[in-house]
Amino acid sequence: PDNLRELSQKTKVFIGSAVDVTALADESDYRRTLNREFTHITAENAMKWESVEPERGRFTWEGADAVVRNAMRNDQKVRGHTLVWHNQIPAWLTAGVADGSIDAAELRGILRDHIFKEVGRYRGKIRAWDVVNEVVDDEGNMRQTIWLEKLGPGYIADAFRWAHQADPHAKLYINDYNIEWNAAKIATTLNIVKDLKAKRVPIHGVGFQGHLGIQYDYPADFPSVMKQFTDLGLEAAITEADVRMVLPVTPEKLATQADYYKRMLTTCADNRRCVEFTVWGYTDRHSWVPGWFTGEGAACVFDENLAPKPAYNALLTVR
Ligand code: G3I
Predict the structure, then answer these.
(1) DSSP annotation of 307
(2) How far is the CA of 195 from the centre of ligand 1 (A)?
(3) Which PROSITE patterns match (predicted)?
(4) Closest Cα to atom 36, ligand 1: which residue?
(5) Which residues line ligand 1 (CB under 6 A)?
(6) Which of 95, 212, 238, 310 qualifies as a FRET site for 231, CA 20 to 30 Å off?
(7) 59 by DSSP, 3-state: which?
């Protein structure tokens, strides 16, 4: 294969990228490379609740619409990200819960309306939704969030049922980070899935975010972890892959990064139920990493100038 789109056809794995809506609108080279290389798209921020309803009842769908429109035009599937999360919730909602002006019953109705509205708007256009994101903490407990605190653990089943009613054909996912390797988190997440399935809640997939760094050992158990989930009948996706490094960049670090990327895609390609490998931004020009990890960066498969890095070439050699 000469590019990732061809690789996607060969491996039968959708190969995706998160999209920065500002860059999509303003940078023609960014847009061109995105549409040439990728068969799947996730909005990096534009579908999150604070982006689509910044004030109560005032909806701003422009960014999300632009991502979906671009995908339709370029034969790309779309991952909806994300319906229920503890971050990037609108300020009006956080404040209303904090000052008690929104009580638990109203909060439940607000969440229901949000899911019906957003999933309904894109009905038929979203291949898979991240229904719940990061609901387990790193100790393996249910994450303490306004959702758990005010609605109890049943909010997860409710969210999946509402999303399924709003778009019966979308694949509905639980998505998290560190479940490539964190045993406590993996065990709890598996239990959530088993419990939902026992209750016949419509859950169809598990998303492994895949945020790695070369200063840590590669999570060698990832293939068997993925299999534990897919053996439950779920499909799988790697939803936010990136491989950061402590700067400066060196050829050795780029080689290690390339190996980590290749192993992640190989894990997906080797599991018959893993259908999507999405990177969390494809270019070092637009990446969340430098803003979050001081002194780290260069986590993507293309550099700032959209030149392919060793990681890109390594991906092309998968199978
Ligand atoms: O939109 C404002 C802009 O108006 C303002 O000028 C600017 C100044 O800081 O901030 C902008 O908002 C930023 C937003 O990204 C859009 O760029 C926020 O500060 C920033 O916190 C936000 O970060 C995003 C982060 O989620 C927030 O939790 C990252 O871009 C995004 O990559 C990241 O993505 C998450 C996934 O959704 C879930 N998994 C982990 C992943 C990485 O953290």
Answers:
(1) P
(2) 32
(3) GH10_2
(4) 44
(5) 44-45, 87-88, 133, 177, 209, 240, 288
(6) 212
(7) coil
Domains of the chain listed by start with CATH number = 4-316 (3.20.20.80)
Q: What is the mean pLDDT of residues 128-142?
A: 98
pTM: 0.98
User: How many whole angstroms separate alpha carbon 176 and alpha carbon 192?
Assistant: 12
The token duo for 275 is: 């259908």
Catalytic residues: 134, 240
Q: How far is the CA of 81 from the centre of ligand 1 (A)?
A: 13
For ligand 1, atom 41, name the residue with the nearest CA: 240
pLDDT for 283-315, tens place per residue?
A: 999 999 999 999 999 999 999 999 999 999 999
Q: Whole-angstrom Cα distance, residue 98 to residue 53?
A: 18
Q: What amino acid occupies position 69? A: R
| ipTM of predicted assembly, 2 dp | 0.93
Q: How far does residue 248's CA lie from ligand 1's centre (Å)? A: 24
